[in-house]
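Hi R.,

Here's the chain you asked about this morning:
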Amino acid sequence: MPATSPRHRHGEHHPIVAAHLERRAADAQLRVADAITAFAGSMPFVYIHAVAFAVWMLFVETDPWPKLTLVVSLEAIFLSTFVMIGQNRQSAFQQAKADHDFIEQEQELKLNTELTRAIHQLATEIHGRVVVAEPGE
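And the predicted structure, written out as tokens:
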């Protein structure tokens, strides 16, 4: 497809991507999960935690390890759940895109086959007329 086609203009997406984004935007729970996952996968998240844990260990509690261990464990449980939500979402998206691409490829193959047959038929007709029209053969 040429680079000037509408599909390749900036800001437009594959139909599966557009449908996926619309579904996610329509569901408040998915928007919250996306926001948490995006933040949890960022460097500001790491910096905030490094500072918060350092402050907790140095200034808040004299024996921070029991509570800190509990908090970090609970946070890890929730973050791993958000990672799995993201992986499930990505898997569903990849499957939908693969299904869409398969259908598109099958339609393209069918069209190419029909065109090849039409070209073969025309070439056969032209060959028949040229061979018949030549004198001396």
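The chain is about 80% helix and 0% strand.

Let me know if you need anything else.
M.
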